[in-house]
Amino acid sequence: MIFFKSRIEREKITVGAMIKLYCRLEHGSRGTLCSDCDGMFDYVMKKLDKCPFDEDKPTCLNCSIHCYKSVEREKIRQVMRFSGPKMLIYHPIHAILHLIDNWIKKNEVKSIRN
User: Fold this and answer.
1) Helix, strand or coil for residue 45?
2) pTM of the predicted structure, to 2 decimals
3) 35-49 vs 7-27: helix crossing angle, rounded to 10
4) I need a labelling partner for 72 at 20 to 30 A (CA). Which of 48, 79, 82, 88 fits?
5) What own/partner pairs with CB < 8 Å and gap ≥ 24 does 52-60 have?
6) pLDDT at 47
7) Domain ranges of the chain
8) pLDDT digits (tens, 9 = 90+) for 14-46
């Protein structure tokens, strides 16, 4: 169950669901990702595997390190802008857990700075 997964595992599940949703609705794929989205999925998974924050990883919005190359960063932004609002409908638990993680890490960063 997603509630008991590590922070990185939850992030992988959530971003994977976002990419799959984007590919299905934007590219019309069914069952498998198109080659562009599959490449993006692999890239994101590799970056998450190498995240220096490990289990203390903030959401990308609150991250101090921008580890994606500029082209890939723009692609994932496009995916997140498209899929983010739809996640509450298609994957509400993933969306809510992501919002909670975002809120927690944002408040941790604030408390460190104050």
Assistant:
1) helix
2) 0.84
3) 170
4) 88
5) 54/8, 55/6, 55/7, 55/8, 56/7, 57/7, 57/8, 57/11, 58/101, 58/102, 58/105, 58/106, 58/108, 58/109, 59/11, 59/98, 59/101, 59/102, 59/105
6) 94
7) 2-113
8) 999 999 999 999 999 988 999 999 999 999 999
